[in-house]
Amino acid sequence: MLNIRQGKLQDLKQIKDLAVSEWAQFKSELTLENWEKLSHTLTNEKTYADLILLSDSFVCENNQGEIMGFGFLVSSGNPTEIYNNQQAYIRFVTVSKKYSGQKIGQTITEKCIEKAKENGERLVALHTSEMMNAARHIYEKLGFKIIKQLEPRLGKIYWLYELELK
Question: Which residues of 94-133 are buried (b: 16+ CB within 10 A; e: fewer)?
Fold first, then answer.
């Protein structure tokens, strides 16, 4: 059984370290310039602090308190250049390779969906790229549908996915 709990500011260093470690797998798929852009976001503690404070954050930890994965659900009413005002959206679902195959990413995504329903949301969105085929498979299995292809980001194709909640 996975231990999923609400994330807190005290988790910030572990969350950042896990993101920096796990997202490094994409370095070879990006140009140096695009890797530096992504790396700047990944290494900036404000990225995670803002998400922890703004969202419902979920961390999956083992019995020793090590964070194995995390994700964030931002409520509707917080539009960005990608998301509209009506969409709640999932950000940064990240899982340690050490724990792959345990359905941690899927479970965190399901927790985000459950929380969105509890919060009375009608739509949950997320964006992902051609680099993240394993994640895309999980999202599609959970019922997310591509609603549009986004402008390229970091030199890669990205899609906006959406799930209509009942």
Answer: bbbeebeeeebbbbbbebbbebbeeeebebbbbbbbebbe
